[in-house]
Amino acid sequence: MSIKSETTDGTKERPLNFIEQKIEADIASGKHGGRVHTRFPPEPNGHLHIGHAKAICVSFGLAHKYGGVTNLRFDDTNPEKESTEYVDAIRRDVSWLGFTWEGGEFYTSDYFDQLYGFACQLIQSGKAYVDDQSSEEMAAQKGAPGRPGKNSPHRSRSPEENLELFKKMKAGEFQEGTRVLRAKIDMAHDNMLMRDPLIYRIKYASHHRTGDDWVIYPMYDFAHGQSDSIEKITHSLCSLEFENHRPLYDWFIEALNIYPTEQTEFARLNLSYTLMSKRKLLKLVEEGVVDGWDDPRMPTISGLRRRGYTPQSIRTFADRIGVAKRNNEIDVSLLEWALRDDLNRIAPRVMGVLNPIKLVVLNYPEGQKEQLVTQNNPEDPSAGSRELPFGRELWMEADDFKVDVNKKWFRLAPGRVVRLKSAYIVEYVNHIEDDSGKVTEVHVNYVKNSKSGQDVSGIKAKGTLHWVSCADAVDAEVRLYDRLFSESAPEAKGDFMDCLNPGSLEIKTGCKLEPSLSAAKIGTVYQFTRLGYFTVDPKYSEPSGLVFNRAVTLKDGWKG
RNA sequence: UCCCCGAUGGUGUAAUGGUAACACACCGGUUUUUGGUGCCGUUAUUCCAGGUUCGAGUCCUGGUCGGGGAACCA
After folding, report:
1. How far is the CA of A332 from the C1' of B26 (A)?
2. A17 touches strand B (CB under 7 A)
């Protein structure tokens, strides 16, 4: 595995989480011959999101840490919901995150024959039976928490009869919904899942891989643990919601006498202002609230990628949130922090003006132009430098000029002096307002001997502004994103559709970027000096009409 | 009503019977040609009640609160 799981301070030791402690104890005791083999088992019925990213980092990361490998297994036991489109997307997302499944790529459907055999084995040992009742009848017999259920009238069929019926189920001799195979456990068990759970059902549906070969399909509980066992997974890691399934998982392993994989559960990720349910995310897509699974506001891996998130930032995030059994709600600002932490080190700095107004340097000769040199990344000298054209007419940020200001204002204002980044110090002369009082143009004089790197003017400018030369500027559209929901926990109260943030997307046109950005590449994330991190939108951007997405702002320490 | 899991600063995560720590956030200072970054510092934590112990966040008992648990879903 060629990923770096270290964080910025990668050399620091992090205390072991409870799963690592367990793995180390297992290795020490020689369990599984000291092997560590994990798996990531998504159902290909939707796109992966940041919650899955945590699970991926845990399962792949742990195997990697302990010298083991990981399998990617598509859990495809419900043909009605699954498709190869999702398989491809999941594969792409996992590898984009930086992980390779050198344990192999598998499908639960690979094991349909074996699973069928397991079912027959259970029947023969009297541990499973065919039930002819309707789902309503079975539900009524199930009892309730605290109240035992009743045995099915078909519970005592002989193994021979059960086997015969099960074979007929497989042969397509029964209608969908008329018969199921159930494990024979205990209808009075405290754990509802142990009350003779369904393990096979009839479904006349085409499967994305096995086509019409099968008309019976195993249930999750009868497929998942056995698949782990078949692959000799040592540590089967999953989320807390499956804790109640573990006794059943173990029951099947024991009843079938197969490889003893052990399941360990940990808390899934919850992120503030974010939805983590595939079903609800799908609704956002279907209702056109967003422009697809990869909308930059979506918490999907593809959305984060399009937004400008880096694989490293997501891995760092996963590392920082830790692994435990406690329910949590992580503040999205930690995810943003992880992105800034990565991008600050690697993002090329460029200049772009989002809300341009004219800045005219009165004492700079008309028609004159010069190339200034500026660093690509002050955090990384090896990133080199580039040239920046400067002239008499520039674009500046509207927010960087204000008429009435107080002492804390560092930017341009009447009577003030500022430095233009990598260029000259300029002094306010006057400004022009339109009829509504909006400032449309600011006029300054530049200080000739204050050129960046050769400044002998002795003038100290408190503020530094970004700017772009009018004659050389590249026009672009820039999309600013904010959280999709205005509620910290959109799923908590009422309908999540009612707390959509109407300002989650702001489209700015007529933005002015420095000329080097006309060659901006998809996949590179740039820091627009003083503004934030931006990347080319792969869906809407064209050579003739650049479109940038803002991944995240810079931290704003100004408390004006 | 029954079963399972959990509870440590604002948010997460450690401390495995022996000084409650780390990160993020916040606040303040400092550096800075990005009000970014870096550096320094401040504030703030063991759900409750009993018990065991020289000593309890940790062990025991009881409670409270939160999450999960009935699908021909995974």
Report:
1. 16
2. yes
Chain B bases closer than 7 A to any CB of the protein: 1-8, 10-16, 23-25, 27-28, 33-38, 66-74
What DSSP string runs through A266-301? Answer: EPPP-BTT----HHHHHHHHHTTSSSSTT-TTS-BH
pTM: 0.95
A522 Cβ nearer than 7 Å to chain B strand: no
Calpha distance A447→A426 (Å, rounded)? 6
Domain boundaries, chain A: 35-266, 278-348+476-552, 352-466
**In the predicted structure, residue A3 carries a pLDDT above the cut 50:** no
Q: Which two tokens stand for residue A118?
A: 């397991």
Q: Is the CB of A268 under 7 A from strand B?
A: no
Question: Is the CB of A369 within 7 Å of strand B?
Answer: no
Rounded to 5 degrees, φ, ψ at A331 are -70, 130
pLDDT at A7 exceeding the cut of 50: no
Token pair 């904010």 in the structure block, residue: A482
Strand partners, A526: A534
Mean pLDDT within A411-434: 97
Residue A8 has pLDDT above 50, yes or no: no
The confidence score (pLDDT) of residue A14 equals 80
Give the architecture (CATH level 2) of A278-348+476-552.
Answer: Beta Barrel (2.40)
Gap from A527 CA to B37 C1', Å? 12
Domain A35-266 of CATH type 3.30.390.10: no
Question: Residue A328 and residue A325: Cα distance in Å, rounded?
Answer: 9
Amino acid identity of residue A161, one-letter, is: E
Same topology between domain A278-348+476-552 and domain A352-466: yes
The correct answer on CATH 2.40.240.10 for the domain covering A352-466 is yes
